[in-house]
Amino acid sequence: MVRLVLSAIRERLGETALLGLLAALVVAVGVAGPLYADAAARNVVAATADTATPSEVSLTVTVEMTSRNGYAAALAELRGSIATVPAGPGVREIRGGYRRGAVTPREPGAPLELLLAARDDACAHLVLTGACPAGPGEAALAATTASRLGLGVGDSFGFQVQPSTPATPLRVTGVYAVDGESAALTDPYWAGRAELTPVPLRAENPIFTVPESLQALGADTFQATLDYVADLTAMSPADVDTLARTLREGDVPGRGIAVTGGLSRLLPQIVADRDTVAVPVVIGAVLLLGVAWWVLLLGVGHAAAARRTQTVLGALRGAPARHRAALTAGPGVLTVLVALPVGLVLGRLLAQLLAWAAMDAAGPVELSVTALAIGVGLTLGVLASVVLAYVRAQRGGVLDALRQVPARRGAAGGIAVVAVVVVAVAAAVQLRNGDEVLGLAGYVLPAAAPVLMMVAAGLVAARAVRPLAGLLGRAGLRAGRAGTTLAALYAARRPGMDRLVALVVIVMALLGHAAYGWQGLQADEAERARLGLGAAEVVRVRAPSRAALMQLVRQADPAGTWAMAVARQESSSGTTVAVDTSRLARVAYWPATAEVTAGELARALRPPANPAVRVTGTTLLLDLTVPAALQIDLPLTAVLDGPHGEPVTATGAVVPGRARHTLRLSVPACASGDGCRLAWLSFRFDPGGLVLHGIAQDGPAAVIADQPAMTDPARWRTTVGAEGRVSLTPGPEGLAVDYEPADPRFPDPEVRVQVADVPLPMPAVLAGQARLAHDRTVLRGELLTPLRRPVDVVAAVPALPGAGTQGLLVDLEYADRVGDSTDNIADLQVWLSPDAPADAVDRLRDTGLVPVSTQTAAQRAEHGLAVGQGPGSRFRLGAALLAVLLVMVAVALVVAVDAPRRGAELAALRTQGLPQRAVGRATRSGYVLIVAAAAALGGLLGAYAAEESAASPGLPVTVLAVAALLLSAAAFVVGTRLSKVTGLDLEEGR
């Protein structure tokens, strides 16, 4: 029996090799899909890890804990209060605590509000000069903080928690560096905690110590921190799923426990991105598998038909049934079994090649249990298909087999076509009506509906081949065109020609849809990247202040043509983007959907306001009257923006019993450049009715604000949010300042008199519906500070640069002034225009700005393609291109199988006098025209099914044209072989 099967294989070695190749391709295509999906899932995790910020990969827990039982006991209690503790591969737990307090500089000046912090393994993430704090009373200071305080290694200082308690002595054992492009800003160890992360140019960096020093402060409480940082590079997709489920099922934190960080949002986003990738991958794999199986069935069907006559002759000569079965199906079954391991290897290689071509972080692709199971299942399916094809080919009578009459089709094919059309129409109607689709169908249906429509269109087009070919043949016969008539009538009566047409139409439609989809996805992602980033290139920087950022950027680009200062703040309600509006129109990317121009909005965002109170001398003079009720010295601090935007402070004491006098505050930095802008005057506690009569300066002498200016209610304001507690009362003599705490037990740490040099409510542009601007709706937004400020919506556009579809756009200078704080929590950026000079970052660095990172719109778009629909869309395009190659095989296969019988027919016609020219036209042009027409129809269907036509459809048109030429060339080549017929050859016809 085995020798019989082997002899049958040797007899038709080429046919057997083709069957084995097609079977291996079916297995390879089926295995490549899940392997590519696994690689895409790993790529999503890797690409997210490359761009994730420390706050996005962290989960932070902060709560005020009692220090009575000790630092370690408090942290243990905090950890025990968390019902669900994040854990697993790549997750690190970091414990710590801190307490706020004041440190007085050695030189006369205002005390610095600093954090004294203890944190696990902090010194390993600091660049220290000196030694790491190892015992109680030892501390490490930032270089900027030490310089501001006038301290060095070995010096001692006092840390005062409250004004009423004595300072705790600490000794400096080390100074850590924060200058240059500090790696701490991108180190996940700090968990994105702005208060603990060492920041360049900031004097208020934290002081690091050991837990015992916190305990020695004598304070009743401290802020306990428990941070969980995930190393995504050490996590598999399964680990991501497990951790995401753990965080999702975690209990709501208790009262007083603040849980922040983006990890609980990042992990579900990774899972969603993987699902987004998986759907087009599955659809592309199924379609490619369907094409490969279709070609396999064509080959198997023709091979079975070729063996049909041999089987019948064997039966007539008395061959046993088992021998006939072995002769018929044995070679195919044995070939398919041998093709299984070959298909597994080819599938892994195909998945690896596609991953390398489509992903930046594609690692090695390894066979998985799922892929092996799919390979075995497909092998069994191919075996069943082979057996069924041979069984079907043997149906019919002996005479039909000897005359090689094709087996008749059943009704199943027609029913299948009707079912596909009905399902496709239903899916299209549901999507067009906007019906909500829940669950997995919500991902699958939008991607599957156009595919079903194209498949249905291809099947319907195939049903029209025979009638149309018959009409064309009769028309050619009446016109006397023998070649055209022969080609058309052969297509009308050839059973497999409509299947070939359906295959070509469907594959070309899928190729066109995939090419247009990829082109459209690239355009959409580029638009989304430009809008989300805000400009062609964005440089994240550190600056002494927001005002300094604006000054230094203007210094780097005096003409204002390529750089713009920006402060960006994200919150749960949206993103606030504060820009230097004088450069908005020239630098920022402005969406085409906006009904107003960037220049118009820039003018609306900066209406006229009171002029700033500027100090250009070396000494600030405050003419004031001390109330009789004041019993102790009242610290008064003037806060100013320096000539280059840097913070300038000067502190003096208002002495009781001096009645009206002049307080002198030294501000030597204000004597240079354009001087300083006075931001506010701060009192340490209740001024009790203190009256400000005027503000002047010395060096040179000048009046800054006379008595009428001091009594003008439009020139002064309280801190936003403190209106009910601080009252500013203009009187005949000047401006009286009073304070009434909402709760006498918890007075505010300072009372301010702000300069009113900014419009309130703040003008803002909202990303949203235009009616909000028409209503002049007043909202409250986070303008670079946690406390919300009132904003006046002067315009609304669908999307804003840097904020997207949810956020606010405001003027940076006005937002900085209304922020009422020198402490910056916003992300400081410099936006660069497309024509920015190549050395733009170096020019920014030369001004004193510290670049942290740089991102271009192209890089952001590439990242979006890596973690979004990009890998799936690339796979669909690659699968469609491979399907075209399979269709070329199908074209060659159909024509080659038809060659003997078709050649015999044409030879007979040549013997009867048919010209060679007509034979050539019937063979070459006949196949070419059929394939070319089907390819053109498929390409048009694919372009029509695309959701949006590409703005410049160069790639889709090129891909479709090349594919159509390849298919037509294959048909032409095999048709040319048939055209060389000289006369009747009965042996060849048999």
From TrEMBL:
The chain crosses the membrane at residues 277-304, 325-347, 367-391, 411-431, 443-465, 500-518, 877-897, 926-945, 957-975. The keyword tRNA-binding does not apply. The keyword Transmembrane applies. Keywords: Membrane, Transmembrane, Transmembrane helix. Coiled coil: none annotated. It comes from the Bacteria. This is FtsX-like permease family protein. It comes from Catellatospora methionotrophica.
